[in-house]
Amino acid sequence: xxxxxxxxxxxxxxxxxxxxxxxxxxxxxxxxxxxxxxxxxxxxxxxxxxxxxxxxxxxxxxxxxxxxxxxxxxxxxxxxxxxxxxxxxxxxxxxxxxxxxxxxxxxxxxxxxxxxxxxxxxxxxxxxxxxxxxxxxxxxxxxxxxxxxxxxxxxxxxxxxxxxxxxxxxxxxxxxxxxxxxxxxxxxxxxxxxxxxxxxxxxxxxxxxxxxxxxxxxxxxxxxxxxxxxxxxxxxxxxxxxxxxxxxxxxxxxxxx
Length: 257
Hints:
Elements: E1 9-13, H1 18-29, E2 33-38, H2 41-51, E3 57-61, H3 69-81, E4 86-89, E5 96-97, H4 104-132, E6 135-141, E7 152-153, H5 154-172, E8 178-184, H6 190-199, H7 205-210, H8 224-234, E9 246-249
Parallel strand pairs: 1-2, 1-4, 2-3, 4-6, 6-8, 8-9
Antiparallel strand pairs: 5-7
EC number: 1.1.1.304
Enzyme class: oxidoreductase
Protein name: Diacetyl reductase [(S)-acetoin forming]
C-alpha cells in the first residue's frame, strides 16, 4: 500500500520524544524526509541518531512560542530539504487545574504554546504547502471536545485548536491543503511514563496500562505507535479526501461524538 510519502518532507514540532518522535519514525519508514523540532538539543541529537536508520532526518532547536519561531523553523526546513509537504503541530503539554487555582498568566502561556505556536508554524509553512497541496495536522486532546472539572486552561486551548482546524480546512481547501486534528486520550508518552513511575513504580508497564481502566472501553492505555499511525495516515495521500476532521484516539473513553 502506497502512502505517498516517498520524496515528501515533513516537519514535526515537539518531536524529540513521545508521539512526535514515533510519528517521525513512521513517516521516515514510508519514505519521507523529516525535520524534528524541540527545545532540547541533547534529546534531538539522540532522536536524530536513532531515527537516521530509517531515513533522512535532521533537527532544529527552537522554542515554538518565540516570535520568529515559525519563520526560523520553516526556513531551516527549506534550506535543508528544499520543500515542505506536511506540518504536524505537536508541541504542547497538559496543564490542568481548577478555574479557581489557575493564574491569569497561566492562561496566556497555555494559549501561546498550544494555539499561537500552531498559528505561527502554519502561517510560515503556508506558501510552501500551497506549492505542493500538502497537509497540516494539529494535535489536540479529547478534553477539547468534552471539557471537565479541573481541566483548565488546557481544555480551552484544545477547544480553540479544534475550532482553528475546522476554520483552516475551509480556508485552505482551495489550495489542496488538508487540515485535520487528532484528539489524544490516555496514550503512552513521556508524561504518562512519569505518572507511571511516580504512582506505581512496582508495576510493569502492562500492569499499569490495564489496571483500573474501566473508564476506557478498550480497557488499557494506548500505545505511542497507535497514535502515530493515525497521524501518519491522516497526513498521507491515502487520506486525500479527509479534511476538517477531528479524530479521537482514546480507546473509546470520550463521551463526545
